[in-house]
Design a protein that fits this description.
Layout (H helix, E strand, L loop, with lengths): L2 H18 L7 H12 L2 H7 L2 H9 L6 H14 L6 H15 L2
Length: 102
């Protein structure tokens, strides 16, 4: 699988998470945790308390980097503004008000 294919897969999963859980839209840490909880074996490993297996799973090439999840969120929110978080909406409103006051 190519890097572009991997990013498309991650974007699709991130879009689904943003649709289902609006609280993830403004918090990349929570988004990353939700992603790995849903799409990896990490929750099972954590319950077992096996740190070596946890490290192995985090380092696995199939577990996306935090930055990849963050980038996918930005791409999804750029394409689907309705999935933007409150911070982005407030920034847009502030920018519009600033322009009106010029």
């Amino acid at each position: 699988m190519s890097v572009a294919d991997d990013l498309k897969k991650i974007q699709g999963r991130v879009k689904s998470l943003l649709n289902d859980s609006p609280e993830l839209r403004d918090n990349d840490k929570l988004l990353w945790l939700a992603y790995i909880s849903k799409h990896t074996n990490i929750p099972i490993i954590i319950k077992l308390g096996d740190m070596d297996s946890f490290k192995e799973c985090i380092m696995d090439e199939n577990t996306p980097m935090f930055e990849s999840i963050s980038r996918a969120r930005r791409l999804v929110q750029a394409e689907y503004p309705e999935l933007a978080g409150n911070k982005r909406k407030r920034l847009k409103i502030a920018t519009e008000v600033k322009e009106l006051l010029k």
